[in-house]
Specification:
A hairpin with a 3-residue loop joins strand 20 and strand 21. Helix 2 packs antiparallel against helix 3. The protein contains 5 helices and 29 strands. It has 5 domains: 91 residues, Immunoglobulin-like; 80 residues, Immunoglobulin-like, CATH 2.60.40.10; 90 residues, Immunoglobulin-like (Sandwich), CATH 2.60.40; 75 residues, no CATH class; 48 residues, no CATH class. With 447 residues, it is of the alpha+beta class. A 5-stranded mixed β-sheet has the order 2-11-12-16-15, with no helix packed on it. The C terminus is likely disordered. The longest helix is centred in the last third of the chain and has 41 residues. It comes from Homarus americanus (American lobster). InterPro entries: FN3_dom, FN3_sf, Ig-like_dom, Ig-like_dom_sf, Ig-like_fold, Ig_I-set, Ig_sub, Ig_sub2. Pfam families: I-set (PF07679), Ig_3 (PF13927). Keywords: Membrane, Repeat, Transmembrane, Transmembrane helix.
Length: 447
């Protein structure tokens, strides 16, 4: 069977291997007959050639270009011939690299005067000589945190921090150093969180998230919209802030949205919003309720209603008085009384249209009334009859008229004709609906 021995390339010697250099292995084989093939393994898994990844296999040699942290492990080679198969010794490949962050940053909410412990976790090789530096940054300045406030344990750093004023709020960042050097690249951004649907309408939706720590580099946010359950990509959106407005969606369809934060170092883990369904508009309308009525509206309507009632009452009163005047004029025509009766009708209409006269004017009218005719006094029954169009009010004198004496005049026709002669004193004269004052008899005269 073959005799097999594995070793690192002679040019490497015992020097420590740092990330980014080229490494090669030599598999020394001694056998007869010669081997047919050589198999390379890393941690028990076969290594396959991959020039894009920098892995080159050439029978007895394995070349690793630009080794990375992931290249570290235990390597072996296996040779076989018709007499048997032999596996070489295991050669560990240890790669030293600069510290890198474990996970993303974090956002911590703390009140003034409240103590909080912040943790900085890094991956480094070697990790037994780590040193940490903390920096505080706000809108005014960036300062280094005092070393005595920093604690290191098992490759992690802890900082107990207490904000005392508004100026103590900002961003705290840590940088680690080992024998290889200081941490070169900031950490990848922290994944976004608290993603919620801000607005959901027919055909559109809007989603917003809380951004995570940017890892010290500018970040942007990418949203991808998928049709569920087929997981077909429908749209890709990119924004400076984690807020996205998606249009052109169909009601009744389920959607999946993934949101990722990206910076120059890499991308965060995606945040997913699943089972989004847009419903038809008719099913998404809320109950429509009438707006509350202000008390001022009721007051205004009451005032308008009162005004309308007063207006109708005024119109009705005007109609009643107009009918009264018409009745008086009609009586004048029926009785055939001239002079005083005509004047009385005119005064009655004037009185019915309005009484807003001055006292001096009333006194002048009183003198005229003594000469021209009587006023009108109507009872409740007469008013009702007036409204029904059945009877006009009677004319009753409220002042003392001239006195009358009864005498008989004998004319040529030897017939007695009764006459009323004014005396200057006397009683009341009543004019009824008989058509003429000549109907008065001796018993109806007053002396």
């Amino acid at each position: 069977a073959p005799r097999v021995k594995l070793r690192l390339g002679a040019n490497l010697g015992d020097r420590p291997i740092t990330e980014g250099v080229d490494v090669y292995f030599e598999c020394e084989i001694s056998c007869n007959p010669p081997t047919r093939d050589v198999v390379w393994n890393k941690n028990g898994q076969e290594v396959h050639p991959d020039r894009k990844a920098g892995v080159i296999v050439s029978h007895r040699n394995l070349v690793l270009q630009m080794v990375r942290r992931s290249s570290a492990g235990n390597y072996t080679c296996t040779a076989s011939n018709p007499l048997g198969t032999t596996t070489s010794n295991s050669v560990p490949l240890s790669i030293r690299y600069l510290p890198v962050c474990i996970g993303g940053g974090q956002t911590v909410a703390v009140a003034e005067g409240e103590d909080v412990r912040l943790t900085c976790r890094v991956d480094a090789q070697p990790d037994d000589d780590l040193h940490f530096i903390w920096y505080f940054n706000n809108t005014l300045d960036t300062v280094e945190v005092e070393r005595h406030r920093i604690k290191v344990r098992q490759g992690h750093s802890f900082l107990d921090y207490t904000p005392r004023s508004a100026r103590d709020y900002g961003t705290l960042s840590c940088w680690a150093t080992n024998s290889v050097g200081m941490q070169a690249d900031p950490c990848p951004p922290e994944r976004v969180g608290n993603c919620v649907l801000v607005n959901l309408t027919v055909g559109t939706l809007e989603v917003g998230c809380t951004p995570g720590n940017d890892g010290g580099l500018p970040q942007r946010f990418v949203a991808r919209v998928y049709a569920s359950p087929t997981h077909t990509l429908l749209a890709t959106l990119e924004e400076e802030e984690p807020r996205f407005h998606v249009e052109g969606l169909f009601p009744g369809q389920d959607y999946l949205i993934t949101i990722t934060a990206v910076n120059a170092k890499g991308a965060s883990e995606p945040e997913e919003i699943d089972a989004i369904r847009l419903k038809v508009a008719e099913k998404r309308m809320g109950d429509v309720s009438a707006p509350p009525v202000s008390p001022l509206v009721g007051v205004f309507l009451g005032l308008v209603g009162g005004f309308v009632l007063l207006l109708l009452a005024g119109i009705l009163l005007t109609r009643v008085r107009s009918n009264k005047c018409n009745c008086v004029r009609h009586r004048q025509r029926d009785t055939g009384v001239g002079g005083a009766s005509s004047t009385t009708a005119s005064k009655l209409c004037a009185t019915g249209r309005g009484r807003a006269t001055h006292a001096s004017h009333d006194e002048e009218n009183d003198e005229d009334d003594d000469e021209d005719g009587p006023d009108v006094v109507k009872t409740a029954n007469e008013t009702a009859q007036l409204l029904e169009g059945q009877k006009c009010p009677e004319i009753v004198s409220t002042r003392r008229p001239q006195s009358y004496t009864h005498s008989t005049v004998i004319g040529q026709g030897s017939s007695d004709s009764p006459q009323l002669t004014p005396n200057g004193t006397g009683g009341r004269a009543l004019y009824r609906d008989s058509g003429s004052p000549h109907h008065l008899s001796r018993d109806e005269s007053f002396v």
